[in-house]
Amino acid sequence: MSESPPRISGARRRLYEIIFEAETPSGKAFDVVLLIAIVLSVSVSVLDSVASYREAYGPALMGLEWFFTALFALEYGLRLYCAPQPAGYATSFFGVVDLIGWLPTVVGLLLPGTQYLTTFRVLRVLRVFRILKMAAYLEEARVLATALRQGRRKIMVFLFTVITLVILLGSLMYLVEGAENGYTSIPVGIYWAIVTMTTVGYGDISPQTPPGQFIASMIMILGYAIIAVPTGIVSAEFVRGESEPKRCPHCGREP
């Protein structure tokens, strides 16, 4: 059973069905078009950051950018118009994401002068956040968010355990290796423990003594086990969510 429709009528009701209700044919078509526009707009922003492409196709990329900016601004305005509670939508997560989808380009135009070039670069990067709009149209994203929310306590305990381990191991390496081998402080030791435990291993700091190398080997092996823990937690919540029967949010009945 689906949720009851909002109490709006006329053109607003029709727009609401197209923009907010993905179950209708028109809503599905709107979502597909919008997803394509999001992917293309992010691609334009990425290409615009490459100097060679910007020099060769600068006017075309700028024209496309303004086209997508106008498109997302129009979409944002229509959502505000047909939303039953415009203020609630505007202050919601996806409302803010929709605003970021077009506002940076406009603000960048309103900040002339070389003194604002740094700010302009930041605003240009914000355009890539349009890709967050895709999460609103992917059911898998909602399933993932539910699994993470249900397993948040286990994940918090896991993170606390990892933080405790890296503090202890970093302190231990500071005592074993010392400043002469690059471990000049406990924070440096903690940094090394995090990099080693995540199996990244930048190589900027490495143990030189046999005891330190033995500890490093144990941390590397431990890192593989630690990486598997959060995956298991989220996977278990996925399985639990899929096995539980779906219920109507209003009456609580199973379909």
Explain how this protein is built.
This protein has eleven helices and no strands. The protein has two domains: 128 residues, Voltage-gated potassium channels. Chain C (Four Helix Bundle (Hemerythrin (Met), subunit A)), CATH 1.20.120.350; 95 residues, Helix Hairpins (Orthogonal Bundle). The N terminus is likely disordered. Helix 9 crosses helix 10. With 255 residues, it is an all-alpha fold.
List keywords for this structure.
single chain, 255 residues, mainly alpha, Four Helix Bundle (Hemerythrin (Met), subunit A), Helix Hairpins, 2 domains, 11 helices, 71% helix, elongated
- Would you tell me the structural class of the helices and strands? mainly alpha
* CATH architecture identity of the largest domain: Up-down Bundle
Number of strands: 0
Shape: elongated
Strand content: under 5%
The CATH homologous superfamily of the largest domain is called Voltage-gated potassium channels. Chain C
Uncertain segments are 1-5, 114-120, 247-252
SS field, number of helical segments? 11
Order of helices and strands: HHHHHHHHHHH
